[in-house]
Design brief:
Blueprint lengths: L1 H28 L5 E6 L11 H10 L9 E4 L11 H12 L3 E7 L7 H15 L5 E5 L6 H17 L4 E4 L15 E8 H4 L10 H4 L7 E6 L6 H10 L4 E4 L15 H9 L62 H36 L1
Parallel strand pairs: 1-2, 1-8, 2-3, 3-4, 4-5, 5-6, 6-7, 7-8
Helix pairs in contact: 1-10, 4-5
Length: about 375
């Protein structure tokens, strides 16, 4: 009888402990991984098949079919250029073979370029390079006026209507407001030096779009002028800020995208390993206040590199980035599984408790009969 009571009490204790342990394990297993979108403003020197820039990109992307680096933003001449460049044509093909989605770069001139011209540049990418291009990166985006917001809405809807399978990245380089969140598939919501990005004065995002973890794969951060030793800290902070895409480089303004980071492989690995994100249970609460205008980057041209014309030399210009097809997340135990496990444990406790109670009652009756 005592054994039964002891077993029942132990079962109750184990059940009470097991349920929170199961829940805790599920929370910590939900690691936040990223992917790297490559702002590839480097001329592809195909006359030299060992171009170190593109060789390094291919060597990293090819083994995992581009899952770690799913997209590259291509920039011929601050846009598509006027005619087919055979070196670009070959590189676009090679990227596609390695699993990297090519995005064509298009400037909007902070929404001052005539809309017809912007649309023509989108179509020029398709005309010159066909299905090797599978998306557009819209650079120099701003949204301070109703007209600017309407411009973004119109060009986004145009691209989606003409090319439904295209992925669109928009680059304001700063926090966005919720009223434009529907007008791009991915937004570059931070583009700045490492010092500014890691500063205590970095303005926190307050929009529902950026503070919702469900939107991580629509949120892309670019950090330049970084030290290789700071990659890990920058990556950790970017994950805490819900950036699902990242690019970190040691290169400096005004041309921070014409060379690979000092340790490209390490930068990619830090993004994709998913180990340096705080567990959800410890994450800071998300602000519910309405979006405020960021303190920095008030002027459209702040921290943006002026577009340089490409003269078929090595360097390309302009900032940007692009999204790639999202990799399938690793299978995790569902909350339903956790609930079933908890239910089974609780059920076992009830059965053992009932059995112990029955034995006690039976024993009392037996003693009473003997008396």
């Amino acid at each position: 009888m005592k054994k039964t009571v002891v077993i029942s009490a132990t079962a109750i204790t184990l059940g009470a402990v097991s349920i929170p342990l199961l829940q805790s394990t599920r929370v910590e297993a939900m690691a936040h991984t990223q992917q790297v979108i490559l702002p590839a403003y480097k001329y592809p020197e195909q006359h030299n098949n060992n171009d170190p820039y593109w060789k390094a990109v291919s060597n990293k992307a090819k083994p995992d079919a581009g899952q770690s680096t799913p997209m590259a933003i291509m920039n011929v001449n601050s846009g598509p250029g006027e005619k087919v460049d055979p070196n670009y044509s070959k590189q676009l093909t090679k990227n596609d073979q390695d699993g990297i989605r090519n995005l064509g770069y298009v400037r909007t001139g902070y929404m001052t370029k005539p809309m017809d011209q912007t649309k023509q540049e989108v179509e020029k990418w398709v005309q010159l390079y066909g299905d090797k291009v599978r998306g557009i990166m819209l650079d120099e985006i701003t949204f301070d006026t109703t007209q600017q917001k309407q411009y973004l809405k119109e060009i986004y809807q145009y691209i989606k209507a003409k090319h439904p399978n295209f992925l669109v990245i928009a680059n304001p380089g700063r926090h966005i407001t919720d009223d434009i969140a529907a007008y791009s598939d991915i937004f570059i919501t931070a583009e700045m030096t490492a010092d500014k990005y890691m500063s205590a004065n970095y303005p926190p995002a307050t929009s529902k779009f950026e503070t919702d973890e469900a939107n991580a794969k629509r949120n892309y951060h670019i950090v330049y002028n970084a030290k290789t030793s700071d990659y890990e800290k920058i990556t950790k902070v970017s994950k805490e800020r819900n950036a699902g895409y990242i690019f970190i480089t040691n290169d400096e303004f005004p041309d921070p995208f014409n060379a690979l980071p000092g340790d490209y492989n390490h930068m990619v690995d830090l993004a994709t390993n998913g180990t340096n994100k705080k567990p959800q249970a410890e994450a800071e609460p998300k602000p519910a206040t309405p979006e405020k205008k960021p303190v920095e980057d008030k002027s459209p041209a702040a921290e943006q590199a002026p577009a340089k014309k490409d003269t078929k030399q090595k360097d390309q210009s302009t900032p940007s980035s692009t999204p790639a097809e999202e990799p399938k997340p690793a299978q995790q135990d569902s909350l339903a599984d956790t609930g079933i496990n908890s239910f089974l444990i609780a059920g076992g406790v009830v059965v053992l408790l009932g059995l112990g109670t029955s034995l006690i009652i039976f024993n009392k009756k037996r003693i009473a009969r003997k008396k």
